[in-house]
């Protein structure tokens, strides 16, 4: 198969989807890999390293899309990439369709095969390609929250861990999944008082067992959220409904309950955000203020630490990318329930229920489209 690795062009996105080590693996199985010049530079990988690994370099993103059967990316295509995408071309990347109707319609129109990292799902319902970036984003959420809690950054002017004789900051974490767990561990390790909320009692029992003494677990509901935001200094939004839009747990009217300079970090922003007042920001312009509350809503948080993020991501994605390259997407998805669940849009049809529900668009069962595609290609 011919694999294309374009340079990421989203604002301040420095990750790359395939490392030189990944190129070596693709080449070992006889595949051809084209990498756009300087694609790995932001993550610390030179063009020379890619050439040594067996990749062929192309100068422009257009050349990559034009020649590749499978495009492997990190972030979803942006508007300037839409016209480059070909019918039947396989795109393997994060899409987060439920947060962007424009992207959804564009991929339907291009009739591409869109296999989303974030909905590849194991039998135990874990999301192996979302986990590494959730770990990074959860840990970063505390770093960023602590920074913007400083007075010059618009926050309340509180040191996260406090000092002797001065109480530490109160951190509220909404969601006890990977993001929430990593955020709580980081905040607790820095000495903050942490409250983590989730709707699953078994998950809260687990967190109660593994977390240090400065972490409390509380059942998530509107009453408890309203009560806790009144004294929280940092609020981390880390809820997830796989493939669907995130629920709004903090509404606009709740902001008046918070103290001026409270910092809200919405890690769920790439799925539409879990705060009603959230809208996506960039690393270049990461925050804004609503009702004296600082909002940090960067949609590609791990892009700020690209070396760590690229290695963490590609460790997880490469085995799946090799399956797709070795077998072709139809056979790979037929044999792997995990990859099958990653299919979101195929040749103009939405095959993932969460995307269909987000915009009220027609849904076609994935198996029906897979059977149809397989018969056409026989």
From TrEMBL:
InterPro entries associated with the record: Ala_DH, Ala_DH/PNT_CS2, AlaDH/PNT_N, AlaDH/PNT_NAD(H)-bd, NAD(P)-bd_dom_sf
Name assigned to this protein: Alanine dehydrogenase
Known EC number: 1.4.1.1
Reactions catalysed, as given in the entry: L-alanine + NAD(+) + H2O = pyruvate + NH4(+) + NADH + H(+)
Source organism: Salmonirosea aquatica
Family per similarity comment: Belongs to the AlaDH/PNT family.
Keyword Protein biosynthesis: no
Binding-site residues for substrate, renumbered to this chain: 15, 75
């Amino acid at each position: 198969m011919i694999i294309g690795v374009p340079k990421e062009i989203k604002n301040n996105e420095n990750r790359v989807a395939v490392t030189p080590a990944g190129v070596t693996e693709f080449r070992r199985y006889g595949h051809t890999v084209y990498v756009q010049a300087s694609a790995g530079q932001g993550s610390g990988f030179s063009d020379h390293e890619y050439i040594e690994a067996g990749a062929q370099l192309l100068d422009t993103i257009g050349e990559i899309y034009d020649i590749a059967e499978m495009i492997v990316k990190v972030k979803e295509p942006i508007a300037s990439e839409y016209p480059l995408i070909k019918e039947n071309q396989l795109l393997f990347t994060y899409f987060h369709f439920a947060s962007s109707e424009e992207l959804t319609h564009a991929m339907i129109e291009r009739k591409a095969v869109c296999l989303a990292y974030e909905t590849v799902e194991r039998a135990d319902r874990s999301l192996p390609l979302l986990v590494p970036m959730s770990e990074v984003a959860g840990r970063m959420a505390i770093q960023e929250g602590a920074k913007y809690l400083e007075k010059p950054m618009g926050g309340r002017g509180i040191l996260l861990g406090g000092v002797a004789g001065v109480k530490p900051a109160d951190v509220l974490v909404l969601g006890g999944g990977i993001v929430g767990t990593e955020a709580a561990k980081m905040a607790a390790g820095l000495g903050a008082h942490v409250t983590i909320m989730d709707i699953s009692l078994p998950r809260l029992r687990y967190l109660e067992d593994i977390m240090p003494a400065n972490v409390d677990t509380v059942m998530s509901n509107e009453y408890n959220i309203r009560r806790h935001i009144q004294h929280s200094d940092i609020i981390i939004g880390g809820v997830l409904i796989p493939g669907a839009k995130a629920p709004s747990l903090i509404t606009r009217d709740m902001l008046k309950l918070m103290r001026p300079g409270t910092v809200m970090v919405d890690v769920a922003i790439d799925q539409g955000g879990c705060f009603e007042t959230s809208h996506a920001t960039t690393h270049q312009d990461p925050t804004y203020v609503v009702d004296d509350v600082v909002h940090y809503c960067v949609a590609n948080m791990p892009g700020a630490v690209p070396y760590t993020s690229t290695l963490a991501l590609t460790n997880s994605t490469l085995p799946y990318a090799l399956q797709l390259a070795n077998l072709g997407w139809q056979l790979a998805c037929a044999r792997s329930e995990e990859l099958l669940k990653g299919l979101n849009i195929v040749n103009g049809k939405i095959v993932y229920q969460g995307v269909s529900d987000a915009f009220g668009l027609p849904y076609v069962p994935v198996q029906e489209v897979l059977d149809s595609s397989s018969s056409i290609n026989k």
